[in-house]
Amino acid sequence: MLKAGGLVDCDVHPNIKSIKDLYPYLPRRWVDYIEETGFSQIPQNPYPKGANRGVRLDAVPAGGVAGSDLGLMRAQLLDAYGVEFAVLNPEHSYRLNFLPNADFAAALASAFNDWLIYEWLEKDQRLLGSAVVATQDPEQAVKEVRRVGKHPRIVQILLPAGAQRPYGQRYYWPIYGAAEELGLKIGIHFGGTGVSTGHPPTPVGWPSYYIEWHTLMPQAFQAHLVSFICEGVFERFKGLKVTLIEGGFSWLLHLIWRLDKNFRSLRSEVPWLKRFPSEYVPEHFRFTTQPMEEPENEADLLEVMRIMGAEGLLMFASDYPHWDFDDPVYALPRGLSEGARARILRENALAWYGLNGQVSGLPGR
Amino acid sequence: MGKYPVCRVGELPPGSRKIFEAAGRSIGVFNVGGRFYALRNRCPHQGGPLCLGRLSGLVFAGVPGEHGYRDEGFILRCPWHGWEFDIRTGEAVVDPEKTRVRAYRVSVEPPPRAETYPVSVEDQVVYVHI
């Protein structure tokens, strides 16, 4: 196995073996509710995952569930690549935003967060966590941010890309206020489109296939990015920072060109903006790399990355143990400079999450 | 091109596979319906352990809505990203000219043995018949 070394992985998924793993962290009322109703899993979109049931087949422990075994995660990811820090985004957790029962969702969010802290973060110093909140009731979400957000290795509040409304809207602002105060990033993660009480996964309705659902996920990220900027979130919460996880990045060019052009004509609609929309991006957004864009001609990607200033905006993510995992040794384009490679694999994330890593070797090819 | 022993035929029945090391490489040998195929156990995409993947058939269609299925057992899907390869050629299904994994020739041969000669004993003397 090639060693990458000096690496921060911004998207790793620990998983529960079953909903029962959360029982120690749930009030008795909700354990009873789960037992009585037979509730077994957080709602999913209706698309069967096209490849290997959604996970790397070699990441499934014997008789178990991919992502449920810290030992295997160490062997296949943390130790194998010399990961300094890995940001854990618990599998399934963020989709609790599509449960109709707001109180049940809030209880599950707290349970996921405690499970994450006690069963993962406190067992390995390299692990950092995203705490999930249930946005059905912003008031309870704020309480949860304040309850778990002071834990030294909770670095981010986790929201799904799929949403009931664009994330820039004032409905969510109390959550952002609490996050900003505690120095937590807002992490928006791939998924949650076309789930249960949510909207269809695209503005034109339901595509037929998983390949379409997966490919079109960036639409949700684009809607949120534009909303955050236009609603003036960053004028109200000047320290708020948003990590876009697993949503792609090369679409940013089209989006900000169009948005800046429109701003010249339509600025009076959003008079609270003090800068061109694109100027909010470098300060307030980071994009994770996986699933890496892989055009036929690598030089095309390098050109796009150069234009968008990718070496300051991107942070490596593997998405372990999912089927579309990126290997840090192979994922980035070969032609990237050593400096850009170091920033994307490590330094950008250290700065973004305020980590003080030690300098060590960087991966070759 | 060296020749490396893998196992006895009986240890690799139809439908099974064996992954072994030879010449510094990890290689998977498959028995599909009594015939043997071998591929490098390393996906050309990101280096995933290709030969641990699931074997399936080739889903094909002439027109939208068709779901043909052929070449059952010959299509190997990488356990990481699900890329499809034909184990008979090592070629990727989507772009066989450009993307392929190394395929190796497999042969079944009698085990190597020393040459033997008939021996007889006559009048307490041992004779070798050459």
Describe this structure in words.
Chain A is of the alpha/beta class. In chain A, 35% of the residues lie in helices and 11% in strands. Chain A has 13 helices and eight strands. Chain A has an eight-stranded parallel β-sheet with strand order 1-2-3-4-5-6-7-8. In chain A, helix 4 (138-148) packs parallel to helix 5 (173-181). The two termini of chain A are 12 Å apart. With 130 residues, chain B is mainly beta. Chain B is 0% helix and 38% strand. Chain B has no helices and nine strands. In chain B, strands 1-2-3-7 form a four-stranded antiparallel β-sheet, with no helix packed on it. A three-stranded antiparallel β-sheet of chain B has the order 4-5-6, with no helix packed on it. Chain B is elongated, with a radius of gyration of 22 Å. The interface between A and B is medium-sized, with 14 and 13 residues.
Question: Greatest contact pair?
Answer: A-B, 14 and 13 residues
Q: Give the % helix of chain A.
A: 25-40%
Strand proportion of chain A, as a percent range, falls in 5-15%
SSE succession of chain A: EHHEHEHEHEHHHEHHEHHEH
Low-confidence stretches of chain B: none
Give me the strand/helix succession of chain B.
EEEEEEEEE
